[in-house]
Amino acid sequence: MDVRSIRDKAPAMEHQGTVAVWWVVKPREFKKITEGGFLELVSEFEVAGGGIVNPHKHPTHEFYYVTSGYGIMVVGKEKRRIGPGDLVHIPPNKVHSLKPVSKNAGIHCFCFAIAVKGAPPIDYTAH
């Protein structure tokens, strides 16, 4: 499971030294694995305390960036605790799920996905 965190990085100064930037994924770092794909979606979601994102998969590179709360992320057979500042990369067609660590507090994430070349339309209400 590829989980990266801004907590592990020192900021770099970009735009002529005017902006502190935490590179979670460096420019073009994922070019080879996403080449020929397309931006499938950008969303923000919350899993309520006690809830779960049921195990599912898509033909996309999916990325969850945690904005608040803590959860248990499962990708394939790997399981890991994630929290604010973490970016999770979910490779195409890997079964994944997410649940908050607490029944009393949820986890809130920003999500975007890059579909693989030739991916069919996906019905996200069915997954």
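The record above closes out task 2.4. Task 2.5 opens with a second protein, given below.
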Amino acid sequence: MAAQGDRGAQGDRGAQGAPRGVLIVFEGAEGVGKSTQLRRLATCLADAGVPHQALREPGGTVLGERIRALLLDPSAAMAPEAEALLFVASRAQIVADRIRPALEAGEVVLLDRFFLSTYAYQIVGRGLNADGVRAANRLATGALVPDLTVVFDLPAGDGFARADARGTRDRMENAGDEFHRRVGAAFTRFVTAEWQAEHPEAGPVVRVDARGSEEAVFARLVALLSERLPRTFGALTSIGRTS
């Protein structure tokens, strides 16, 4: 699995003959701390002089940020199908404008949410047709496969306690307890070997225990990345132990 996960750094070539970059996706239910961990890792990469992009979904482009504001607006009434297509539209733009160019340039791309969130929130949470959503996602991504997706795992109650500490809930956070129970259960399934064997488009998906302090979770994250993607992240192990 490590060799597969590090394929971008080791072998694939971009348009200019440079090694293809690495795409790492940060996923999880509400309040798991993935955005905080992404920012910490981006800071470490910057300190180490590693070319990288830190991006978020929806967002990351002019179009994407406008879509994000609409999707998260608590006052916006929206059909589930419209919601899914807006997420996919934002994804298509960020893949074309930001992610593919960065990978072609050999950069590390850290992405806060990608299509596993659509699978969890719109297919499982909203109950939309899986084949239709997967087809729309293929169109948006051009079959781009992440080198690694990290799912941060935290008991649902703990996650919402963290989310509520940030302030008023957005439209997605307000979807209801049963909806978020289904979303959390979906992310739990995504890390299983059985689910991944049925969904090769997702690439390798691994779990990180999100309980404890930010420092403890970050140490787990760096240890995982150093094991799975040693050529890209091996030198960061000592940073993860002392951050």
